[in-house]
Amino acid sequence: MATLAPERISIDTIADKVYAGQRITAEEALFLYRHPNPLDLAALADARRQQKVPGRTVTYVIGRILNYTNVCWVRCKFCAFYRVPNSPEGYLLSDEEILSKVQDTVDKGGVEILFQGGLNPKLKIEYYEGIFSSIKARFPNVILHALSPAEIIYIAHISRLSLHDTLSRLKASGLHSIPGAGGEILVDRVRKIIAPYKDTTDEWLACMRTAAALGIRSTASMMFGHVETLEDRVEHLGRIRDLQDECNPFRAFISWNFQPEDTALPVSHKASGLDYLRTVAVSRIFLDNVDNFQVSILTQGPKIAQTALGYGANDFGSVMIEENVVSAAGNKFILDAASFERVIEEGGYEPRRRNTRYELI
Length: 361
Fold this sequence. Notes:
The protein is built from 14 helices and 9 strands. The protein has 361 residues and is an alpha/beta fold. The protein has a single domain (49-353), classed as Aldolase class I (TIM Barrel), CATH 3.20.20.70. The longest helix has 18 residues, at 230-247. Belongs to the radical SAM superfamily. MqnC family. Its EC number is 1.21.98.1.
């Protein structure tokens, strides 16, 4: 008896799956990346968004990216922020400076501190326990969304601790959740080109898995538009989706395009706004187990960010009282809360303020 040939992939077969709430395959995601009509992607991504987060509400949080140090030995080729150890331009903020910045954040209505820096060889776990405990004692309502997996893995290494013990101690000191920074593209071939000394794909995933087992949630991210292929992007998304199936670590997904200014990575131009919108849409359609999708207003600007709300995004991310890493590459799309709300409303959506846990305030 002859077997039936597999159904040919088309925008209609994918649409049937999406509207039925079914999962698409990696092959179908790659098809969507190459589909010529972006409005078809927008319709499917918005349908998936409505399945996960119904309505017209768009959330945002008020927070500060607190870059406590720029000293880092890893020398990622895509980063314009770091300074190598012993550089005269390297810094480590004092505890008093850090607490002053947290106070300023609270005074401006902020509820989240995104505490990130570099892989500074002088800072072992006792440093982080000390400063986290100080922040927690003085500002018990502030949420510490802190340290990338690369930082945590390095802290464990230089402190001669297991990843589990490191995360347990950080949590006891006040760590609430982990940002998805450092994911870049979770394909080791790509990682060896753009950040040869950084953690591997498996190490990044292991950190998020270990954190989830301890009740520490996180976000996932993708930095695209450098040396990766479309197949690499889909492979990255597949690893995020698989880990989310396994242990549900991710509250949100954020993608942004590589910013080439003043970096050591030889990429002559940025990914386009259309590529960004396409990536948001494909990610939303493929990552059917992640609720919240943040726009990257810092790299895209308000107009593209507003448009992305029709491509599956439901969150405007953080009103950044301070940001230094992306801005080091010359990008300065930093808006206040009133501007966030105006842009959201002009897009036909209802702005609502939230905290890191996606609880409405």
